[in-house]
Design a protein that fits this description.
0% strand
């Protein structure tokens, strides 16, 4: 059974590369529903959410993640694959402008994210939400230290995510220029 799941998953990924989103989703969904091993289930779940994200099926990705949310975040430490899946979920929420849900989700998930690059992506989203969608300058200021701390754990200091996070904080906390 495990080999069949792997084959379905790989066929789905090949169809994705060929641009056939429907077949890609069908095969990866089939692999996911037949998954028994936790590690494989996480990977196929990520592939499923990522394919929905790439195809613009944001609502479908959101629906699937929300139906499986408790299963995803029930552990004390989330695998890199689960963290990546949650990042795609957050991006889907951004795309459909679910700001109220997005703020709550990002605030809830940020403490669970341990990979610095992913954590910075979450912080970038929060900076934007605090600064633009529901103006909260204190919220932005409160993110400066966590962003710098997460940035310390990235070996490539020119990392564009890190630079974007710091620049966004500075942009949204700087006094408005006077004419």
């Amino acid at each position: 059974v495990y080999k069949r799941q792997t084959i379905y998953n790989n066929i789905g990924l090949v169809y994705s590369e060929l641009g056939d989103k429907k077949k890609a989703l069908r095969f990866v969904s089939l692999a996911f529903t037949q998954s028994e091993k936790e590690e494989f289930k996480e990977q196929t779940f990520h592939n499923l959410i990522y394919l929905h994200y790439r195809s613009g099926s944001y609502q479908e990705a959101i629906k699937i993640v929300e139906a499986n949310f408790d299963n995803l975040v029930h552990r004390e430490e989330l695998s890199k694959c689960v963290q990546k899946t949650l990042l795609h979920y957050v991006r889907c929420l951004e795309k459909v402008n679910k700001t109220d849900v997005l703020i709550k989700v990002v605030e809830k998930l940020s403490p669970l994210i341990s990979y610095p690059e992913y954590l910075l992506e979450f912080y970038i989203g929060l900076v934007y939400l605090y600064a633009v969608e529901s103006p909260n300058k204190h919220g932005v200021v409160g993110l400066i230290d966590p962003i710098l701390k997460a940035s310390d754990n990235i070996s490539d200091k020119s990392n564009s995510v890190m630079v974007r996070a710091i620049n966004n904080c500075l942009l949204y906390t700087s006094p408005s220029p006077r004419d």
